[in-house]
Specification:
alpha/beta; FAD/NAD(P)-binding domain; 2 domains; 5-stranded parallel beta sheet; 14 helices; globular; Flavin-containing monooxygenase
Length: 507
């Protein structure tokens, strides 16, 4: 990049959020933008999570952009390679390659209140932008717990999102830490080849059957030649999930019938009463993320698998000590312990108008107006920000709603004219946050009796959206200027002309 390249919009991240933003910008006629990606290819979490068995738990025809339907999904629930290939296809089809800056990790971004622009330092050099969009996503930075003695472990250690494909697991004693969405896919994928698999389960998960199958050639042909069939399939998948929302957000007791399905699913595969007791949750289904698998329970019954109903307390050399005092020998440790969701690292790198970082602003909990705008951070929007997560449907629906908001945000800047910035009013952010927390009181995430990654350190759910995707779309359809302060340059200040873009920067 040039010494000080200037763009209208800079987008951080090239997963679904970042690529979606890039497509929307081009469709709005905006071509003066860049997508800053720390890795060497697009894909976000679907690039980084390449562990054995990695797949999506949302149906393929719903887990894709409405403006980029894929009639050739191979399965009801697609695997990681197909989703990553889809994102590469989106980048090519919509002409996004000239806007992508690979190996350009954002090291710091600071708001310049005099120039009304963002000064951004990246691994490839500096640039400035009128508007900054963070699309890093909450599932991008792995979290490994601070386990005493872990540094003494002589074997291999890695997180599920940073899978070491060069390490041969065959015949090894492998400890899997965690029982979340990644672990239930990894366990059955590696169980046949490892010598011993020890699953450290701090809290059992609710697991339901996975209605997965190959999509037939006839179906793919029909979806490709008659687009209405593809749209109908997507619409049905969406509608079913919209009808489920009230049970999660207003009437959690209705989820008891779903729990019965989960128990029956377990009984079919697990005949040992003692093992079933270990695997049976004591909280309302939906309080933690509901998992889908037909192979997880059968894998746990195999003779080379041990389920340790305890968390990992400490490590002593090659010995793993559980919170129940159990001792397990291992050659490798795989952490399936999630991500920095309520403490996203990008927040430490963004400094707002009053000189504090977004992490400091959020030290008591994440808060953003309509999931995107934090007060004190002008012309800054977060995709998949606070209270935008879902427990039963496709996050792509939420992303597209936020893209509507982004498009109108930029439109409002154009209408207002001249050098101007929008800064969310603190009272508007507080009112929105209070509204979210009031709605959260009745949800299964609050009343279900569990401790989940939806909750922050203060026990507040700052992650999930307590409503339908249709509601969120209505709430983010337009920017309400009354919720923002309008910022102008200081009197008498003249903004220097930005540096011309170099040939290298434009490719």
């Amino acid at each position: 990049m040039s010494e000080r390249e200037h763009v209208r919009v800079a987008v951080i991240g090239s997963g679904f959020g970042g690529l979606g933003a890039a497509v929307r910008l081009r469709r709005e006629g905006i071509t003066d933008f860049v997508v800053l990606e720390r890795a060497g290819s697009v894909g976000g979490t679907w690039r980084d999570n390449s562990y054995p068995g990695c797949a999506c738990d949302v149906p393929s025809h719903l887990y894709s952009f409405s403006f980029a339907p894929n009639p050739r999904w191979p399965r009801n629930f697609s695997g990681q390679p197909h989703i990553r290939a889809y994102l590469e296809h989106v980048a090519d089809t919509f002409g996004l390659r000239p806007h992508l800056r690979f190996h350009a990790e954002v090291e710091h971004a600071r708001w310049d209140g005099d120039a009304l622009r963002w000064e951004i330092e990246t691994a490839r050099g500096p640039l400035t932008a009128d508007v900054l969009v963070s699309a890093t996503g909450p599932l991008s930075d792995p979290k490994i717990p601070d386990v005493p003695g872990l540094a003494t472990f002589p074997g291999k250690v890695f997180h599920s999102a940073r899978w070491d494909h060069d390490y041969d697991l065959r015949g090894k004693r492998v400890a899997m830490i965690g029982t979340g969405a990644s672990a239930i896919q990894i366990v059955p994928a590696i169980q046949p080849e490892v010598g011993r698999l020890s699953l450290f389960q701090r809290t059992p998960a609710w697991v339901l059957p996975r209605a997965d199958r190959k999509i037939t050639g006839l179906e793919r042909w029909l979806h490709a030649t008659v687009p209405a069939t593809r749209a109908a399939r997507r619409g049905i998948l969406w509608g079913i999930r919209e009808l489920q929302v009230s049970a999660f957000t207003k009437r959690p007791n209705e989820l008891g019938l779903v729990e019965a399905v989960g128990r029956a699913h377990m009984r079919l595969a697990v005949k040992d009463p003692a093992l079933r007791a270990k695997l049976t949750p004591d909280y309302r289904i939906g309080c933690k993320r509901i998992l889908l698998s037909n192979s997880y329970y059968p894998a746990l019954t195999k003779p080379n698998v041990d389920v340790i109903a305890a968390g990992l307390r400490e490590v002593d050399g090659a010995t793993l000590i559980g919170s129940d005092g159990s001792r397990t020998e291992a050659d490798a440790i795989v952490f399936g312990t999630g991500f920095h969701v309520t403490d996203m690292p990008i927040a430490e790198r963004v400094t707002g108008a009053d000189g504090i970082t977004l992490a400091e602003r959020w030290k008591d909990g994440m808060e953003s107006l309509r999931g995107g705008s934090a007060d004190g951070f002008p012309n800054f929007l977060t995709l998949i920000g606070p209270n935008t997560g879902l427990g039963n449907s496709s996050m792509i629906l939420m992303i597209e709603s936020q893209l509507n908001y982004l498009a109108d945000y930029l439109h409002q800047l154009d209408v207002l004219g001249g050098e101007i910035a929008l800064d969310a009013r603190p009272e508007a952010v507080a009112a929105w946050s209070d509204h979210m927390q009031r709605r959260m009181r009745r949800t299964v995430w609050t009343t279900g009796g569990c401790d989940s990654w939806y909750l922050d350190a203060n026990g507040r759910n700052t992650t999930a959206w307590p409503g339908t995707t249709a509601e969120f779309r209505r709430e983010t359809r337009r920017v309400d200027l009354a919720e923002y302060a309008l910022l102008r340059p200081p009197a008498g200040r003249r903004t220097p002309a930005p540096a011309a873009r170099t040939e290298e920067a434009a490719v």
